[in-house]
Every structure is written in structure tokens, then in C-alpha cells.
Amino acid sequence: MIYTVTTSPSLDLLMQLQTPLCVGQNNRAIKEELRPGGKGINISIMLYNLGVTSTAFGFVAGFSGDELMRLTAATGVKTGFIRVRRGRTRINVRIKEQPAQTSINGLGPEVSADDIQYLVRKISGLTSDDYLVLAGMVPPSLPQDIYATFFESLKDGSQPKVIVDAPADQLKYVLKYQPFLIKPNLKELGDYLNMQITDARSALEACQRLQSEGARNILVSLGRHGAIFMDEHHNALRIAAPGGELIDRTGAGDSMIAGFLSDYIEHHNLESAAYMAVATGSATATTDGIATREMVQELRSQMTATTADWSESLSWTVPSQNLTVRSDPSHAQPPDLPKRPCHDRKFININLFVQSAKKPRIIESRGFFVSLQEGTQPVRLLSGPLHWRQRPEYAGAEN
Questions:
Q1: Which one, of 219, 283, 229, 228, lies nearest residue 251 by Cα?
Q2: What are the residue numbers of the active site?
Q3: CA–CA gap between residue 116 and residue 148 (Å, rounded)
């Protein structure tokens, strides 16, 4: 059995605007969709689409947690979410403007030590027949070494194979436990090792350094350049991505993990699993949402073992930036990123204030209104009607 862990799952509100996002004006959505979000959840959804059963773990809270559980179950994924009492599951806003996307990430609930121990006990019961996927960032409300806590809880001699897909700052906690697979992207790889990676050869050198720190198998996602895979026997593959027009890269890296696992469980062949990972990630990147099994199989059939170029330059561009909402608005601007004018749209310094019902007597919202602010200039995003109903049994819970 495969178990995925998302320590900070989310509801993702995708909004397509009528005109380019610009401060000081009302911005009206012409299309919207509410999806379950979080890397582990995306992996479980892609696994389900590929015909593989998994169980999604994570912490949820409030009315948004109820909706997340409902939407996740509606995809066919089995869930083992843990409900916490304080706060609410975060709501992320994705503002889509081709070819860029701006993301504003919410804060998430407050998770107690008892809640953490409950999840640790679940994970400690896994065996060598299982696979455990630790995916995504660790929110500020949790101990930053919680992934290490999960590793420590596993029983000696019967440990599951552990896959880690986490930001660069989490690798220092997990590599010493020799995870079965890690999947950094090119930027995360460079950030962790504090090195500039400009081509496939330097990426290969970076993989060797990660293996010296404990990683067994390494899958480096390169976006449109495909991937580099190095197995635990130091055999390296440079895998080109199959063709296709980029539509939405959200969930593409998560789909790579799902593709790798689905193929490895069936064939127990690392090379075959790596090729399936690239096909699955490419399929999701070239569609709206998580790809179907048929799309993955079509792309996989196009791939050969001789199409990759080790000398290719690997340019790393980020067409959109994630902005994490903090209680202190002065922290919204990352210190290393210069402020750019609105027409660039790759980064906008935005502080987010979400208007939400805190009083339990208000049990239904018939619309979604997000108020943004850049300096003294207000920005408004207006969506069409959404319907969230808070379950009566939680009407007295503290928000």
C-alpha cells in the first residue's frame, strides 16, 4: 500500500482573469475552479488515475477542511485525514494569466503535539510492503524536522520505502535516513548544495553529492528539459520530455512521483519507472489538472532511450511565484527578489487579506471575495458564486 503525507493540504481556488492582473483596479474572473491541493494529495489522485490505490494523510480543519475532504474523496482517493480543532485548512488562490501564474498561499491550521503524535502512530505501523511519500513544505505551525520524526518512528527491519519530494530546506533533515527516492527540481538541487547548475553534467555532479549524504535514488525534474535519474548503483539516465504544449505545470512534479511508483510497483525496474515518471509529469503539464491514464500511456509510447542530450544547457526560469501569507505583512516581499512593475507579472508584492466568517452563526458563504493590497493600492479579485456550508456539529468550534 502507498501512503502519502501532506502536512499542509489546501483548497486551491483557480481564477482566470478577464484582463492582466494589475494593482489599483478591480480584476474580474471569467473562469474559476475549486480543487483539492497539496503535493501528497496530487500524488494520490494521479495514482488513482493510473489504477493504483493509495491513502492520503494530512491535517485538516474548519469548513475548508470539510470541503477538502469531500473533494478529495470525490476523486476516488482513500483518505486518513486528521481533523484539528484550531484554525482552518488553508485556501490558496491561483491567478492564471498565460503563460504565467501567480499564487497566494494561505496559512493553514494550528496543529497540536497530540495531533502530530496521532499521525506518527499511524506512520509507525507501516511495514516493508508499504511505500511512504513525504511531500511538500512543512508549515510554520509544525516542527520543521517533522519528516525526521516520521523516519524515526519507522520500525527497524520492516521499514517501508520512503519517497521524499520536499523543498531544499527539508533535505538536511532526511538524507541521513537514506530515503529510497528523492525528487528535487533543478532549483531545489542548486539551493541545497549552494551551487550553480547550468547543464546536465553539473546536475549529475550534484546528484553524486546528494548520494554521498545518503540519498539512494534521485530523480531531478527539469521541466521542459525532462529529467535526470541516478540510481543507487550510480547509473545515470538523461531522459528527454515528450512533446506537448505547456498548459499548466501545477501538479506535474507530483505526477512524476505517482508515475514512478505505479511503474516500479508493477515492474520493479528503476529505469522503466524513471521513464514513466517523465511521461506522467509531461502529461499533467500539457493538460488542465491531473492527467488521465490514457494521456500518460500515449506520451510513454512516444519516448525512447536515445533522445536525451547530456550537453544541453538547462535554463531555469520561474514564470510565477508563490507568495505565502504571513501575519506580519512586512514579510510578504522575499528579500532576494526585486519588485517588478505590473506589466511584467512574474512577481507582484502582494499582501493578502481574506475576508472570512469567523462567527459560527454564519454557516454559509455564497461568494468568494479576496482583497489584496500592494502598498496603498487595493486590488480586488471577484469570483462567481461558490457554496460552502459549515457542518452544524462544528459551528461551535474555535476559528
A1: 283
A2: 254
A3: 13
